[in-house]
Write a structure and sequence with these properties.
The chain has 269 residues and is an alpha+beta fold. The chain has 7 helices and 10 strands. It is globular.
């Protein structure tokens, strides 16, 4: 993967080492993500999320918003990590300066793994026969996603932007299949690994079934748009979610209401 060049000055914390230049991985409307050597572990990397000053905002308001958002995201991540949710660990933060340093997660986004498994998109009129295909590795990945989301909701946190781009597949130490059997299949390797949930910029603490149902609906719609050929397997995520989270029945009941509202909005344009 080609990494974009750094076009903007990094935060001061990343300029202290004369020998290691940070790499700008991605930039969004609200912040930037850098990859940099870890100051805590030799020969390891970490990720630094930085919210730069916004010139279009009043400086005092901008400073308050930045501090509040960094503090909120770090607090949510800390809570999830303590409760055993698969998320990156928070290593350090300076909310006033607008940055948070977290564990670097090796691997590829779940989005990439699923698309690698699915292979090239067929022609529009082509009929894809999957009846003879062993989909166990992909199904096992769907189940691991459900477990991760169940653990997140059990902690009292909703993500706010659950998509397969906001989940990483951290490689296992060996090349076992998700069901525990060894394999050299490249497709199976593409969907192997631990599911780690990332990017909690829109997350909040909530015990609301409605909020949790919206989380699931966002993920379901992400599958429909990004992985339409895997959408028929989405029920495995919900089945696994139900097993991982004892309050899931109420959430899944509310999900039906959220789906209905979504269909009405689609019909009205």
């Amino acid at each position: 993967m080609t990494e974009p060049a750094t076009e903007f000055p990094p935060p001061k914390i990343l300029t202290l080492s004369p020998t290691h230049k940070p790499i700008l991985i991605t930039q969004g409307a609200e912040g930037r993500l850098y990859k940099t050597p870890s100051p805590f572990q030799p020969n390891q990397f970490c990720a630094l999320k930085y919210r730069p000053p916004k010139p279009y905002r009043h400086p005092i308001l901008d400073a308050r918003l930045t501090k509040a958002r960094i503090s909120s995201e770090a607090k949510v991540l800390d809570r999830c990590y303590r409760e055993g949710v698969p998320v990156p660990a928070v290593l350090a933060k300076d909310a006033a300066a607008g940055w948070m340093m977290i564990e670097w997660i090796e691997g590829e986004p779940v989005r990439v793994g699923i698309n690698t498994w699915l292979g090239e998109r067929p022609e529009d009129d082509a009929v894809v026969d999957t009846s003879q295909e062993d989909e166990t590795p992909l199904i096992d990945l769907m189940k691991r996603i459900g477990v991760a989301v169940g653990a997140l909701h059990r902690t009292g946190v909703v993500h706010g932007d659950l998509t397969t781009s906001n989940m990483m597949l951290r490689p296992w130490a060996d090349d076992r299949l998700p069901n525990g059997h060894g394999s050299t299949s490249e497709r199976a390797k593409a969907v192997a690994g631990d599911v780690i949930v990332i990017d909690f910029g829109l997350a909040m603490q909530s015990q609301s079934d409605e909020d949790r149902a919206v989380d699931l609906y966002v993920l379901e719609r992400a599958f429909a748009s990004t992985h339409p050929r895997a959408e028929r397997l989405f029920h495995h995520i919900l089945d696994s979610y139900r097993e991982a989270f004892k309050k899931a029945p109420g959430v899944l009941h509310k999900l039906e209401d959220v789906r209905m509202r979504g269909r009405k909005r689609s019909m009205l344009g």
